[in-house]
Amino acid sequence: MLSIGYFTAVFSILFAALAIAILYVLPTAFYLYAWTMIKDE
């Protein structure tokens, strides 16, 4: 039972870290893409 709780905690932390990374990367990638499109014009 303890191993299942530990696995769930680790998975939750990894999922939260992944979600935060996606929330940071997507706007940054979109901003860089928009900036390059504006710069090319």
UniProtKB/TrEMBL annotation:
The keyword Transmembrane belongs to this UniProt entry's keyword annotation: yes
Keywords from the named record: Membrane, Transmembrane, Transmembrane helix
Transmembrane segments: 6-34
Record protein name field: Uncharacterized protein
Organism in which the protein naturally occurs: Campylobacter showae RM3277
Organismal lineage: Bacteria, Pseudomonadati, Campylobacterota, Epsilonproteobacteria, Campylobacterales
